[in-house]
Q: What sequence folds into this?
C-alpha cells in the first residue's frame, strides 16, 4: 500500500471511501501503521512483519535485561487509554503493552469522572487528550468515531496516532491481529496459516472479531472457512461477498459436530446479547454450539481451540487443561501483538531487531 | 514576600488573615512555593520565574534525551491526585506533568472506592494520603479545604506540599498561572503583558478563573481589563474593589461587539450552571456573548482568543482553525506550567536551568 | 516450615486442611513466601525476617540514591491490584510499595468497568489478570476466594503469586504483619514484643485484624492479651481456643478503664457495621470503649495506641498529637512491610541486604 495523507482529504470524501481504500490513509510514509483503525489497513506483508516483531518482543521479554531494554524504548512517550465501554482484556493488555515499552499511561474509564458532565463534546474531549498525550487508545460504542477523531487530529497542529480498541459493532482490529498471530504461532511448524481450515462458531452475526479475522484470512492462500451458527446468528452476507470477491472457499452450516474432524482451528464465540434489541438472543438455542469435553475426542491432534474471551458456557471448563485449548495463550498473545504495534507506530522495530540479533540469535 | 511558618500560627488566626497576608505561609525559605493554594501567593517575580521555567521545560521536552533528563528529576517522589470533583483537563495535565518529571502517580477519583464509605473524616483521609505520598494535588468542592489540610499537615511529623487544583467557587490558582503563561508567551515579542487590553466575557460572577486571573494581571503595569457579561452574571464588586485598590483601569459593559476591536486578548468563559441554585442560568440569554466566526473579522490581527475549556457554544467550532484561537495551546500550556510548579516545589529549577544552558542555548 | 506444592494436591483435599497446615503450600522452596494468604503461614523466623527487611527498606528509602536503587529492583515486573471492595489505606499502601520497588501497577477497582458485566466468571477474570501481570494483589468480599485462585493459578502454565489484601470476614494477613512490625519497632529498645501486654478494644467479634494479630502474637513468649468489648462484640471462642492451645495468658472483660494502666499497647478498633445483618450495631453502646483525651493520663509513658484505621469516634482527635499515638506511623509502616513482602516474594531481599551493608551500616 502507498500512503495517502489524511490532512489532504475532506471528511466527507474520506467517509465515502470503501474500507479497502481507507487503509493507505492510516500509514506512515515508510509503510508502518500510524493510526490503527480497521483490519483492512493490513496486507500480508504488514501482518508478517507484525507477527515477526511480536515474537521478538516476546522472547526479549523473558529476561530482566531484555525487559529493561524494552522499557527504554518509549519512556519519553505517554499514552491515553480512553475506554468509554467496559473492557478487561483489551484494556489490560494495552496497558501492559505500554508498560512493557516504557510508555507512561493514563486512563479515562468512567465518563462520570470527566468533564463531559459539563457538556463538552466528545470531539473536544479527544482533542484534550491529544494535548497532553502522544497516542490515544480508544474504545467506544460509536461506530466510526475513532476514524473521525483520527481525521480531525490529523488536521490540527498536534496530530497523534489513534488505535481503535473496539468501536461499536464494526471493528476491533487489534483483536483480529492477535488472532492472526495466534494462528501463525500455533501453525509455525506446519507451514503457517496457508491451506488451513478455520471454523467459526457461535454468534457470527454480531461478533466483530469474526468479521475482521475472516477478512484477514483472505491474505493467506488456500484457507477454507466454515461458519457454524444457528440461522438467526449466521454470518452476514457482506462478509461472504468479501470472500467471494477474494475467491475463498467457505461453507455455511448449522452442523457443528460434522465440522469438528476437519477443523485446524475452531474459533468459538460468545452470544453478544449486549447488542440485543429486545432479548432476541434468549429465543435461540445456542447450546448445540457449545464445545464440550467430549468433543476433544472428535478433533485432530493438532487442532487448536480459540475464543476471544470472555466466555460463558461456550467452552466447558474441563477443556481448559487440554493442550489444544489455545484461548489463554491467545489472550496473552494480545499483549505481544499490541506491543509490536505500538513499537511499529513509534518506529522502534529496527532497534528491537538489532537487540534481538545481538543478544538472542 | 518573606516566608512565614504555617506551624507557628493557629488555624483560627490563620483563617482570619486576608488573602494577601496568607501567601507568605505557603512559601519555602528560599521563596519558592511549597504549597500552591491561592493566586495571591504569587508576585511578579515568582510569575516571571515560573513562565521562564515552563518555557525551558517545554523546550527540553522536545527530544528523547531531554525527556529522559526530565524524568530523572523526581523518580524518587510519589504524588497523589485526590479529585473528588469531576475534571478532565486539570486532572490529565497534572498527571502528565508528574509523568514528565518522573514522579510516580496514584489517584483517587471516585469516593465510592475509598474508605470514606466507612465513615472516615476527610481530614483523616488526607492524612492517609500524606503517609504514602510526597505531594497531594487536590480538587474539592469544599471552599478552604485545601488550605485547612495544608495547615494541618504542616503541624504533623510528615508535612508535604499541597496543590489546590480547584476548590469550590473560590480558587483555581494553577488555571490562573497557565493563563498568565499563555498571555506572556503569546505577547513575548510584543513587550509582554504590560499595556495590553484583556477582555473577559461570559459568566464572570461565578467563574473562579476570571477572579484569579484578573488579580494576577494587576502585577503587570498598564493593563486594561474589560468585563463583558449580562447583568446577572457580571463580575462581583470585590474583584472591582481589588482593581480600584491597585489603581487598574477597567470597564464593565454588556456590549460585546463594541469591545472586540480594542481587545488584545479575549477570554471567553462558560456558564457555570453546576453552581445554579434553581436553574437561574436558563433565564439568561447568553447567546449575545458567543464568539462567532464573523467576529474574527472584527478583532485585530494580533488578538488572541482564550478559553479555560470545556466549552459549549461560547466559541464556534469554525473559529478553531484560526491562528488567533489560542485555547488549545492554552490548555497544553497548563501541562508546562504545572511541570514548572512541581519542579519548583521540589527544588529542581536549578538543575533544569543548568541542563538548558548546557544543551539548548 | 517446609514447603508443600500446591500443584500436587486437589482443591478438595486442600480445602479440608486446617489453617495451620495450609501455610507450607504458600511458600517458595527457600522458605520465602510465594503467595501471601493467611496469617498462619508466618512463623517467628519469617516475622523477624520481614520486620528486619522492612526496616532496611525504610532506611534506604531516605535518600534519592536509595530510592533509585529500590526502584531498580523490580522494573521488569507488573502487578495487578484487583480491589472489588472499597479500600483506601490498603490499596494505596500496596500501590506505593509497588512504586517504591519499581513494579509497574495496574488496577481494577470498579467491576462495572470490567468484562464481568458480560457474564464472565470471577475465575476467568483472575486468570486474565495472570496473563498480563506478574502478581495479583486482591481484595474481595468472598471468603476463601484468594486461596482458590492461588490453587487454580498454581495448576496452570502461568502460576503467579497472589497477595490477599483482605478477604471477607476471615483474613487480612498484611494488616496483621504491619501491626506486628509496629509493635516490634515501638518496643525495639524494650526487648521487643516478648512479655508485653496487648489490649484489644472495640468490635472484636468481627474485626479480622484482631483475629490475625492475636494469632501472630502467640509466636512471641509471655505476651498477655486482653479483650475489651461489649458482650455482643466480644472476641469469638475459636480465637480463645487458639490461645488456650498455645498456652497464652488472656483476659476477657468489659471494663476498659481498669485495663488502661497495665497495657503496653492498646489496639482500638472500629464498629464493623458493614457486616451488620439488621443494624444490630446501633443497639450497642460502644461509647464506653472510646479512647478519650483524659485516658492519656491513665496509661504508661511507654504505652502505644494503635488503630488499623479508618476511625470514627473511637479515638478523640485530641489524642493525635500525643507521641504515644502510633496509628499514623502504624499506617505508614504498612507501606514498608508490604514493600518487604513483595521484595521477598520476588527474591530481592539479598540485594537489599547487600546494599544496606554497603551504604548504610
A:
Amino acid at each position: 500500500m502507498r500512503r495517502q495523507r489524511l490532512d489532504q482529504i475532506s471528511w466527507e470524501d474520506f467517509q465515502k471511501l470503501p474500507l479497502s481504500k481507507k487503509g493507505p490513509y492510516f500509514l506512515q510514509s515508510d509503510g508502518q501503521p500510524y493510526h490503527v483503525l480497521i483490519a483492512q489497513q493490513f496486507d500480508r506483508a504488514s501482518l508478517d512483519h507484525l507477527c515477526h516483531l511480536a515474537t521478538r518482543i516476546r522472547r526479549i521479554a523473558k529476561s530482566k535485561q531484555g525487559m529493561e531494554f524494552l522499557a527504554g524504548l518509549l519512556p519519553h512517550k505517554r499514552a491515553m487509554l480512553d475506554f468509554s465501554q467496559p473492557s478487561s482484556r483489551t484494556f489490560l493488555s494495552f496497558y501492559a503493552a505500554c508498560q512493557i515499552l516504557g510508555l507512561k499511561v493514563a486512563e479515562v474509564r468512567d465518563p462520570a469522572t470527566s468533564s463531559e458532565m459539563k457538556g463538552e463534546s466528545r470531539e473536544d474531549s479527544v482533542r484534550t487528550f491529544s494535548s497532553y498525550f502522544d497516542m490515544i487508545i480508544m474504545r467506544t460504542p460509536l461506530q466510526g468515531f475513532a476514524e473521525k477523531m483520527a481525521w480531525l487530529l490529523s488536521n490540527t497542529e498536534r496530530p497523534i496516532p489513534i488505535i481503535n480498541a473496539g468501536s461499536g459493532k464494526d471493528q476491533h482490529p487489534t483483536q483480529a491481529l492477535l488472532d492472526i498471530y495466534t494462528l501463525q504461532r500455533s501453525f509455525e511448524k506446519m507451514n503457517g496459516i496457508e491451506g488451513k481450515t478455520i471454523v467459526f462458531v457461535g454468534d457470527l452475526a454480531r461478533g466483530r472479531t469474526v468479521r475482521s479475522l475472516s477478512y484477514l484470512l483472505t491474505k493467506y492462500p488456500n484457507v477454507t472457512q466454515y461458519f457454524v451458527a444457528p440461522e438467526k446468528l449466521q454470518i452476514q452476507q457482506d462478509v461472504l461477498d468479501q470472500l467471494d470477491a477474494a475467491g475463498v472457499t467457505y461453507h455455511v452450516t448449522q452442523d457443528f459436530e460434522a465440522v469438528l474432524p476437519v477443523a485446524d482451528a475452531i474459533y468459538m464465540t460468545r452470544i453478544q446479547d449486549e447488542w440485543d434489541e429486545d432479548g432476541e438472543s434468549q429465543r435461540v438455542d445456542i447450546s448445540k454450539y457449545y464445545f464440550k469435553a467430549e468433543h476433544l475426542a472428535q478433533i485432530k491432534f493438532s487442532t487448536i481451540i480459540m475464543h476471544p474471551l470472555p466466555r460463558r458456557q461456550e467452552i466447558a471448563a474441563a477443556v481448559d487443561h487440554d493442550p489444544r485449548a489455545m484461548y489463554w495463550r491467545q489472550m496473552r498473545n494480545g499483549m505481544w501483538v499490541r506491543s509490536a504495534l505500538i513499537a511499529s507506530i513509534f518506529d522502534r522495530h529496527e532497534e528491537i531487531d538489532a537487540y534481538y540479533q545481538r543478544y538472542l540469535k
